[in-house]
Amino acid sequence: MTKFTVISGSSSKDLAKKLAKRLGANLLKSQLRVFPDGESKITLEGKLQKNKIIVIQSTYPPVDENLIQTLSIISKAKEYGTEIIAVIPYMGYARQDREFLPGEVITMKVIANLFKSVGTSRIIVVDIHSMIGLKYFNIKSKNVTAIPDLVKYFSKLKLKNPLVVSPDQGGKERAKEFAKFLNTEYISLEKQRDRKTGKVEIKTTNFNEVIGRDLILVDDMISTGGSIIKATEFLKKQKCARVFVACTHALLRNDAEKKIKKAGVTKIISTNTIPGKTSLVDVSGTIAKAII
Ligand code: R5P
């Protein structure tokens, strides 16, 4: 009998297959049917063994649907498993981890309680927006980073005097780590987001270091692309060479990819925490290491 069983939710099928292969685990698929009223019906395909069960499912859009499906699968797995490990490569709602404006609900806290209540023993996430989010989980939790995997991809590109750039101060440590692995330098811009409208502005005025250099804009996630677009427009005005984007989670909502390219980005490279055209970097090895 193998040590682990991997159950794949519908949003992370390919990653589940890769993870199961790396762990030498049984892979159990789940069958999903969404009724006309929007309810999800999930049926696990195959027989569950009494061992450690890994449920893997990213909660990208439709976020609420993927979340309820994840919780449902975990609750079923709990009937059999000796330990339930939830792997949530992209954790939706992670940006709602504090009360920015009075009255705001900290939804991340609600979700953390839900994971515990359905029987999760431990949770593994990849590049969660901020470590604050993980503090709400009263179970064993771990954040793993995809930065070394992303750097591996970038080190094969022929870049001209590369410089790593964070579009905001919040991502400074991420850019620093990326630069360390790539053996180059980094800078971080000053970004301001209107908490009511969501509009983004770059407050930095001048950056001579970027002139003539290929830049790698590093972020944890791209949603609407607003942050990356504003940063690219600013950096292009500073007369940089090419702009590449490295991010872990590419949600790319509302034509974001097209808009980002139009702003002057040469290429977006993301990971398979969210499958899509830009997800060229596999994080199954990094996740597997965190499990064993
Ligand atoms: C913000 O602090 C995050 O790290 C991302 O920069 C941001 O959430 C991306 O969202 P958008 O693409 O909509 O600007």
**Tally the helices: what do you get?**
8
Which hetero ligands occur in this complex?
ribose-5-phosphate
Which ranges are low-confidence, i.e. pLDDT below 50, for 5 or more consecutive residues? none
- How large a portion of the residues is in β-strands, by DSSP E? 25-35%
Largest sheet: 7 strands, mixed
List the secondary-structure elements in sequence, H or E.
EHEEEHEHEEHEHEEEEHEHEEH
Roughly how many Å is the radius of gyration? 20 Å
Q: Class of the largest domain, according to the CATH hierarchy?
A: Alpha Beta
Number of strands: 15
Total of domains: 2
Just name the CATH architecture of the largest domain: 3-Layer(aba) Sandwich
**Multimer state:** single chain
Mean pLDDT: 95
How would the global form be characterised?
globular
In angstroms, what separates the terminal alpha carbons? 16 Å
* Helical percentage: 25-40%
CATH topology of the largest domain: Rossmann fold
Q: Briefly note the structural class of the backbone.
A: alpha/beta
Please state how the strands of the largest beta sheet are arranged side by side: 3-2-1-4-5-6-7
What does this entry look like structurally?
The strands form three sheets. The chain has a seven-stranded mixed β-sheet, sandwiched between helices. A six-stranded parallel β-sheet has the order 9-8-12-13-14-15, with helices on both faces. 46% of the residues are buried. A hairpin with a 6-residue loop joins strand 10 and strand 11. It has helices at 13-23, 63-77, 107-117, 147-154, 172-182, 226-237, 256-262, 284-291; strands at 4-8, 26-34, 40-45, 52-56, 83-88, 122-126, 140-144, 163-166, 185-188, 191-193, 200-202, 215-222, 243-250, 265-271, 279-281. The chain starts with a strand and ends with a helix. The protein is an alpha/beta fold and 292 residues long. The radius of gyration is 20 Å and the shape is globular. It folds into two domains: 4-145 and 282-291, Rossmann fold, CATH 3.40.50; 147-272, 3-Layer(aba) Sandwich (Rossmann fold), CATH 3.40.50. The model has no long low-confidence stretch (mean pLDDT 95). It binds ribose-5-phosphate. Ribose-5-phosphate is lined by residues 95, 167-168, 170-171, 200, 219-227.
